[in-house]
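CO-FOLDING WORKSHEET

Operator: S.A.
Ligand of interest: flavin-adenine dinucleotide
Run index: 396
Mode: holo prediction, single chain
Checklist:
[x] sequence pasted
[x] SMILES validated
[ ] output reviewed
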Amino acid sequence: MAQLPFVIAGGGIGGLVAALVLARQGLVAQVLEQADALGEIGAGIQLGPNVFRMFEHLGLTEPIRQVAYFPPNLVMRDVSSGELIVRSPVGEHALATYRQPYGVIYRADLHQVLLQACRALPSVGLHVKSKVTGYSQRDGSVDVQLADGRQLQAAALIGADGLWSRVREQVVGDGKPRVSGHIAYRAVLPMSEVPPHLYSPDVTLWGGEKTHLVHYPLRRGELFNLVAVFHSDRYEEGWNTFGDPEELHLRFAKAASPVKELLAKIETWKMWVLCDREPVANWSQGHVTLLGDAAHPMLQYLAQGACMAIEDAVTLGAALRASPSDIAGAFRSYQKARYLRTGRVQLTARFYGEIYHASGVMRELRNRMFQSGGEAAGFIGTHWLYEGIDPERPCD
Ligand SMILES: Cc1cc2nc3c(=O)[nH]c(=O)nc-3n(C[C@H](O)[C@H](O)[C@H](O)COP(=O)(O)OP(=O)(O)OC[C@H]3O[C@@H](n4cnc5c(N)ncnc54)[C@H](O)[C@@H]3O)c2cc1C
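OUTPUT RECEIVED:
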């Protein structure tokens, strides 16, 4: 049994970190990715200080630093009046409070760092065109079924296959994800195309009624990332398709002029229909478990989905280290250590979406509370998240 591999469905951020962690513990990890090539779409993501704790533990801080960007402030403005709601010095705060930075990164760069780390380990196998469709369990091992008819015998199966997880269908069986009605349009510009009067070194969020725009520099400041979000009932589900700029401009018609000018700079947007799920406490079944979006898909309003997937992988590794001969027990202690924290992020992210998209009295109250809270106002409610987990003892 010891020779059988751990099969990981999905070669995204969560799947690769899981492979890395397991292989470094002497286990064989086979990553099965459905796509024709391993890679990530071009878009930015934010990385809280909690995930830099994981990078330190994984020995990845330096390669990440080389491609990341570290914004000085988190800024919130009112999308229609342009007024400043809060400016919080996140760079300073994160280092002083958590001894870790707050960064942003191009997804493809993060994925590349993880791929390189995996490729350096002979006990990680990376397989493309390998779509997992299901599994069955017998005598303490798992038969993993693939779409092309192949079947692999594994010591365990980890479903890191994202929002539309096939592994989750079998483990949890709670139907399709919840379509939030919120749509994200994402684009990345070379910095040379950003007019100086529209540039900001900060992570800036323009909040408005049922809309917001976020922008920040990426890749050492060479790129500029934009994410525009609005409520729309035009789409039901989808992933990574092209957006309709006309609808976007309509939704931001009343926005302050810098926002409209920035939106007008972009011709091609990629679109995401944003979904999440209700948190669940049990996402393991014998020698099969879930990780990342497959386990706890969340709206992106706390900018933590990838960070949580990475914390999951570190926790899973620790649980298996503690109980190497009891995989089912290790999977149970892994999920026990994770479900309340990830559930809290899932639910808090929904609430943050409401704050960003507030109108009427809620908007007035938001602006008043943030403006009277001073510089620290931007960090209200996130200490539990950013202080993170102890990577040496995440199951305690
Ligand atoms: C607009 C937006 C902004 C975001 N911003 C942030 C942010 O700022 N910070 C942050 O931390 N997170 C952010 N996120 C969330 C983050 O992108 C996800 O939480 C993260 O990518 C989850 O990683 P994962 O590995 O679990 O899943 P995924 O990244 O979805 O990877 C799953 C992989 O599995 C593969 N796959 C799927 N099905 C199968 C199958 N049956 N067999 C084999 N392979 C399969 C897929 O092709 C994919 O490669 C954002 C998300 C969105 C939509």
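REVIEW:
The longest strand covers residues 178-190.
The pocket of flavin-adenine dinucleotide is lined by residues 9-15, 32-35, 45-46, 131-132, 160-163, 166, 184, 186, 227, 272, 292-294, 300, 303-307, 309 (CB under 6 Å).
[x] output reviewed
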